[in-house]
Write a structure and sequence with these properties.
The complex is a heterodimer.
Chain A (H helix, E strand, L loop, with lengths): L2 H13 L2 H25 L3 H17 L1 H14 L3 E5 L2 H14 L4 E4 L3 H5 L2 H8 L2 E4 L2 H8 L16 H12 L7 H18 L2 E4 L3 E3 L4 E6 L3 H7 L3 E7 L3 E2 L5 H13 L6 E5 L13 E7 L3 H5 L15 H5 L1 H6 L10 H12 L1 H4 L1 H4 L6 H5 L6 H14 L5 H14 L2 H18 L5 H5 L9 H6 L6
Parallel strand pairs in A: 1-10, 2-3, 2-4, 4-7, 5-8, 7-10
Antiparallel strand pairs in A: 5-6, 6-9
Chain B lengths: L9 E4 L3 H5 L2 H13 L3 E3 L9 H5 L3 H14 L5 E4 L2 H14 L4 H13 E3 H7 L8 E2 L3 E5 L2 H6 L5 H6 L2 E2 L2 E2 L15 H4 L1 H13 L8 E4 L2 H14 L4 E4 H11 L1
Parallel strand pairs in B: 1-2, 1-3, 3-4, 5-7, 6-8, 6-9, 9-10
Helix pairs in contact in B: 2-13, 5-6, 11-12
Classes of the chains: A alpha/beta, B alpha/beta.
The structure holds iron/sulfur cluster.
């Protein structure tokens, strides 16, 4: 089954899944209430904040090569290493080499979509490395044998009772739906991992050029432990995670936490500037930052699409998207779900196999409205549809139909002459359609507006 | 929309394809309303469609063909008024994208942009809200279409127009501004998602016992009507102009 058929099949199942819909509705309603309150509390003018952030990210795009170089120089001057990975395979191989060099057996991982993108878990499993997810949400999906459902809240689709049952089965705890007790159970399970892991692997929410630092935000403190306890810390970051100055965080940290989770600030914000220094009592002996391209420079080179690289992965566009809410994160079968995922996946992984995602959108524009860095998301989905057609990757069937239609629709006489035929045609094709398709077959009016106008059938 | 329309100018009806072929009563109701507001109206039957169905589905070559036809049809018109937020957005916001590389047509597009209005924004731009009056004892709610709201920036204009009708009770749902799931060819390509979206949207009116859901886009109307019975929605789904037609007759 190709990706498109798979998507349609899953979407159909999910669209009919009331339990899922209500769970997500509940989660997103509470998210929206918090976000609205936090926007009011923290920003006198949210739009202005968005425009400033957009400007800073545009500055990043204009100077990306220089900023990356600056970042590398600063960070390496403090003894860290920077590795450039052109693609997923190269990134995995780097990690493989580090593991081999240290004879490592056990890895502890913090939440990172970039590691999902390079399919690190699968790779580590193949190497026979013990791999612990330290983020609670990630741990839940890992224990359930699933992929993250959402870029920010990987276990958004799991109710408390589902998590409780999962923990009873996998961690051997007593059944409880108390959130704190569940978190404590996960913590107890993970603490062992932190002290015994050979390598900590993290992502990065921002990388800072002038300071040569990486910044991680999280709510449990596990990511921080995971990179501080083991001897080796590997951070993997997409090249677009760049910010020019440390000072920019004064805007970007609250922007991300407000849009992402409706928090004033994320619980833990870690700044890492290198391995343990002579004056520091602890920390990893070795720190390696892998800068991942994996298709990003391809996006960078396209004028129309370049600005999607402003994305800070806050997840707001997913939450706002009525299609995401209907089909759920797993239906996309991608690392990045929702509107942003439907734009970058065809760019990163191939138009032919992924362009259908750009059609999974009613063009309502709710995503564009919420994006904190002003990405014109729904218009870029439109651009993707057009690009797919230019690259001959779009559906031929629909294109043919539209070609025929455009010939007819530009001629009034033909339009009106074909009306009776269309009326006959609709009942013929109807039985071959699904119930939901049948419902929206239009019932042609007896006469077109033009015919009525001609006959002067108006109330005057 | 800040552009002011000259007094007593002629209004040319922009009848979207869906209205022309499936919902002509919306066109009639709009013509009726414009006449009541004192306009001389005209209609050029050569018009058929603005090209939006092709454009939105990514078929820009065909969209251009249809849009060129549209440009010719409306070359002479003073003011162009449409009962659809999304068709107006097509002309105003997307024609410039379609013809970005075509200088000669861009001049026409720019002139068209200034002359094309969605009906509620037209009533507003023209300061005609006060001329609307009527009476209907009904409970209603308003669905401002996504394109009308986010592409054209139409906000509570529709509500203010409806407030001119005595006896109407307006229900404001907790969750406002969520897409109905139409999305043009989207609802044909991904009908199951579109149906579920309509169902969620109808849920916002649960328990409100609405008589009428007032909508300003024929696409959404078509979609809502197709989904109403399976979503258990008992009220009527009417276009703003149909609603005003009812209200102004019964006044
Ligand atoms: S595209 Fe915008 S809203 Fe979506 S995840 Fe990125 S920054 Fe957030």
């Amino acid at each position: 089954m190709n990706n498109y058929s798979h998507f349609l099949k899953e979407a159909k199942t999910m669209a009919a899944n009331e339990t899922h819909r209500l769970k997500i509705k509940k989660a997103i309603t509470s998210y929206e209430t918090q976000v609205a309150a936090m926007k009011k509390q923290q920003f006198s003018d949210w739009r202005e904040a968005r425009d400033v952030a957009t400007g800073i990210k545009n500055e990043v795009l204009e100077n990306l090569p220089d900023l990356l170089q600056q970042f590398e120089e600063k960070l390496t001057s403090r003894g860290a290493k920077v590795l450039w990975a052109e693609n997923a395979e190269q990134a995995r191989n780097y990690i493989g080499e580090i593991i081999a060099r240290h004879n490592a057996r056990k890895v502890v991982k913090s939440k990172s979509m970039t590691t999902e993108e390079i399919e690190l878990n699968e790779y580590l499993e193949k190497l026979g490395i013990e791999n612990w997810e330290s983020d609670l949400g990630e741990l839940i999906v890992q224990l359930a044998g699933e992929k993250p459902y959402h870029i920010v809240t990987p276990a958004m689709h799991k109710s408390k009772s589902e998590i409780a049952s999962l923990f009873v089965e996998k961690l051997g705890i007593e059944y409880t739906e108390n959130a704190e007790e569940l978190t404590m159970a996960a913590r107890a399970h993970l603490r062992k991992a932190f002290v015994t892991a050979d390598i900590g692997i993290t992502g990065a929410n921002f990388i800072i050029a002038d300071e040569g630092a990486i910044v991680m935000t999280e709510n449990e403190g596990n990511g921080r432990l995971g990179m501080a306890c083991p001897k080796v810390h590997i951070a993997i970051a997409g090249i677009e995670k760049m910010l020019p100055r440390l000072a920019d965080l004064s805007l970007f940290l609250p922007l991300l936490s407000t849009s992402g989770t409706g928090q004033q600030l994320t619980g833990y914000n870690s700044f890492v500037r290198g391995p343990q220094s002579a004056t520091e009592p602890d920390g990893p002996e070795e720190m390696i930052v892998i800068l991942l391209d994996n298709g990003r420079s391809g996006i960078y080179r396209q004028e129309k699409f370049q600005h999607v690289l402003r994305c800070i992965r806050c997840g707001a566009c997913l939450n706002a998207c009525p299609v995401f809410r209907t089909v759920g994160g797993h239906t996309y079968a991608t690392t990045y779900q929702g509107p942003i995922g439907s734009i970058i996946t065809p760019q990163l992984r191939g138009m032919g196999e992924w362009q259908h995602l750009a059609h999974a959108c009613s063009l309502c524009g709710a995503c564009t409205e919420v994006c904190p860095v002003g990405i014109d998301l729904h218009h870029l989905l439109l651009e993707t549809r057009w690009q797919a057609e230019q690259e001959d990757a779009a559906s031929k069937k629909w294109h043919f139909a539209i070609q025929m239609w455009s010939k007819v629709i530009t001629k009034r006489k033909m339009v009106d002459a074909l009306r009776p035929l269309l009326k006959l045609f609709i009942p013929v094709v109807k039985p071959f359609m699904s119930a939901n398709q049948q419902k929206r077959l239009p019932e042609m009016a007896k006469k077109s507006f033009a015919q009525m106008w001609e006959k002067n059938e108006f109330s005057r | 929309m800040s552009t002011q329309v000259k007094q007593n100018s002629k209004v040319s009806l922009f009848i979207p394809c869906l209205v022309d072929q499936v919902l002509p009563e919306i066109g009639l109701a709009m013509a009726d309303l414009l006449r009541k507001l004192g306009y001389e109206i005209s209609y050029n039957p050569r018009q058929t469609c603005c090209g939006q169905p092709a454009f939105n589905a990514g078929h820009r070559t065909e969209a251009r063909t249809v849009a060129r036809h549209f440009l010719q049809t409306f070359a002479e018109a003073d003011y162009i008024v449409s009962p659809s937020g999304s068709c107006t957005a097509m002309v105003r916001n997307y024609y410039p994208v379609l013809f970005a590389k075509d200088d000669s047509l861009m001049t026409q597009v720019k002139s068209l942009q200034k002359r094309t209005f969605e009906i509620s924004e037209f009533i507003y731009a023209e300061n005609k809200v006060d001329q609307i009056s009527g009476h209907l004892d009904l409970k209603v709610s308003i669905h401002n279409s996504c394109h009308s709201m986010r592409e054209l920036g139409i906000d509570n204009q529709i509500e203010e127009i409806i407030r001119r009708i005595d006896g109407v009770e307006i229900f404001i749902p907790q969750v406002e501004h969520t897409c109905c799931g139409f999305g043009g060819l989207f609802s044909y390509k991904m009908p199951d998602i579109a149906s579920a979206m309509a169902k969620s949207r109808f849920e916002a009116y649960n328990g409100a016992d609405l008589d009428v859901l007032i909508v300003n886009d024929p696409g959404c109307i078509q979609h809502f009507r197709a989904e109403a019975s399976s979503a258990g929605f008992k009220g009527e789904v009417l276009h703003l102009v149909e609603f005003l037609q009812k209200a102004m007759v019964s006044a």
